Amino acid sequence: MTMTMAEKILAKSAGKKETEAGEIVMANIDVAMTHDLTGPLSVESFEKIGTPQVWDPEKIVVIFDHQVPADSIDAANNHLIMREFVKSQNINNFYDVNEGVCHQILPEKGHIVPGELVVGTDSHTCTHGALGAFSTGIGSTDMAMVFSTGQLWFKVPETIRFEIEGNLKPHVYAKDVVLDIIGKVGADGATYKSCEFAGETVSNMSVSDRMVMCNMAIEMGGKTGLVEPDQKTLQYVQNHSSKSYEIMKTDLDAPSLEKMYIDVDELEPQIACPHNVDNVKGVSDVQGIEIDQVFLGSCTNGRISDLRDAAKILKGKKVNSGVRMLVIPASRDIYRKALDEGLMNIFVDAGVLVCNPCCGPCLGGHIGLLGPGEVSLSTSNRNFKGRQGSADAEVYLSSAAVAAASAITGKITDPR
């Protein structure tokens, strides 16, 4: 029986030779991640189950990233709950307030390899499909069951494979490609499907760029995002992890496989406009809109390549006097690289506010919130009403290059 990548990984995890879309399987989890915001409810639910010890402390990863350092008594209490949990359960894979965003830390610290089944109490857990793992977000109470048993049931998803061809023009990036796809497909166009990204364009992308694509699969309703492992994947895994792995690839004649062809040769920078991620327009249609804040960071675009792209544009220039710009690296390692490369000097000289590695304004519950009537241009993944502060604010989404160029002019600007 021919199968897709998603079907093969779920079959392996369920101890079966084969599965097909629509089938319900009980699967064994390889990696379970939770963070400071969703973790406490998982712990509370786990304690109600009554299982004294987690099924395997080495397969659980706890990361503080959403409200770090703690910005309220409630946040501080959440941190205390999770610190006590990892201590009592002998969980060694614990990253406190000084490491960075969960979806950067998991691959960076070697927790993700091809062929694994990964769950996290965060919807953007699908990021890790960039390394060929079936990775998806689950609820906090579902995570309690994973903590207890190491298993969870899944409905095997159908697959939509985006065959992306063409060469990206200067200042057009993976973020623009995935925003273009979301705009075409719609917010619910891939509901509960495995979103595979393939083709010449994806082959030419770095692993970081592929993470951008997979990260935003959820924004079109996807269950997971996936890229078939290639030499770039294996090199990344070799550099970051000592775990063994199994490579899965899609059979192109699999019955549940649907294909969609995307040509990016003429693609311009893309902008997701308020208040939905699928409200996508070319930058030429929205340039000139005045902005109050620029946020460069998040699990989507807080990597070193994003900081480099922004620094090239900001070097020797100043952030507009009417704009505040926040740069938040996705991890401490990225922060250190930016320091070593002199990028931080460029940002500080330009008038940027550089913050510690964390989720920042993305979740609307920490630093950099928007006031009523304000407009933000953000490299993050969501622009829902009230997402980054006031419900009366507006959020536009873009690549790092558009964000940097716009910070200089004070309005949405084409970096070309």
Description:
This protein has 416 residues and is of the alpha/beta class. The strands form five sheets. Strands 4-3-2-5-6 form a five-stranded parallel β-sheet, with helices on both faces. The chain has a five-stranded parallel β-sheet with strand order 16-15-14-17-18. The chain has two domains: 5-261, Aconitase, domain 3 (2-Layer Sandwich), CATH 3.30.499; 271-409, Aconitase, domain 3. The protein has helices spanning 5-13, 39-49, 73-88, 102-108, 140-149, 174-185, 200-203, 207-215, 231-240, 283-286, 298-301, 304-314, 332-340, 343-350, 400-409; strands at residues 24-28, 31-35, 60-63, 94-95, 117-120, 134-137, 151-155, 159-165, 194-198, 224-226, 257-263, 270-272, 280-282, 293-297, 324-328, 353-354, 375-378, 394-397. The mean pLDDT is 95. It has 15 helices and 18 strands. Catalyzes the isomerization between 2-isopropylmalate and 3-isopropylmalate, via the formation of 2-isopropylmaleate. Residues 7-284, 285-410 form the Aconitase/3-isopropylmalate dehydratase large subunit alpha/beta/alpha domain. InterPro entries: Acnase/IPM_dHydase_lsu_aba_1/3, Acoase/IPM_deHydtase_lsu_aba, Aconitase_4Fe-4S_BS, Aconitase_4Fe-4S_dom, HAcnase/IPMdehydase_lsu_prok, Homoacnase/IPMdehydase_lsu, IPM_dehydratase_rel_enz, IPMI_cat. Belongs to the aconitase/IPM isomerase family. LeuC type 2 subfamily. One of its GO terms (molecular function) is 3-isopropylmalate dehydratase activity.
